């Protein structure tokens, strides 16, 4: 029982602001966090052509033919050449369970930037119909990312100061100068699930916006 009480006390103390009685003025260390959400402006889709054949020349030739069809289809769909880049290209040997017979696998993957998010599902369908046989994900981006990070940082610092002022009042002191501050960032972008009616018309990609989070650890003097 004594050990359980000690563990519970340690967990309780870890959730409280950290006070210091080192040389000089006492200090308080607090954490602050804030999240700013912004809509996605564009996306990047990873599409690939994967081929397999007993001879490497055949695997390469088939892959090149199918990729040419994919590129032509994307161009016809209005995707400019500068928005299509090679993500990866590799050739490897695939052996069967005996380790003797083998075939050659060729993968040519593209990253396609989609400026109009409403076209993302349609462009994926076009590429797959033209010869691509793999879609390895979609990532959303926002032109407002830098500003969102800045806004989140300002809000996180304000939250840290608010908590530090509460701690100071609780101790019968006033908040002094900022001694140190450390920060970190994070971001997250989601995709909403499509409704059945949307799926009937083709692949539905529904972006759910981007969250930008800033976390700070700040130490203030107490007076």
Gist of the model:
The chain is of the alpha+beta class and 223 residues long. Helix content is 34%, strand content 43%.
Task: Name the descriptors.
5 helices, Alpha-Beta Plaits, 223 residues, alpha+beta, single chain, four-stranded antiparallel β-sheet, 2 domains, disordered N terminus, Translation Initiation Factor IF3
Strand and helix layout:
Layout: H1 2-14, E1 18-20, E2 27-38, E3 42-53, H2 56-76, E4 84-95, E5 102-114, H3 120-130, E6 134-141, H4 145-170, E7 175-192, H5 196-199, E8 206-222
Antiparallel strand pairs: 1-2, 2-8, 3-5, 3-6, 4-5, 7-8
Helix content: 25-40%
Taking all residues together, what is the mean pLDDT? 85
Order of helices and strands: HEEEHEEHEHEHE
The SS-based structural class is alpha+beta
The number of helical segments is 5
User: In what range is the share of β-strand residues?
Assistant: 35-45%
Report the sheet with the most strands, covering strand number, pairing sense and barrel closure: 4 strands, antiparallel
Please state the second-level CATH architecture of the largest domain: 2-Layer Sandwich
Shape: elongated
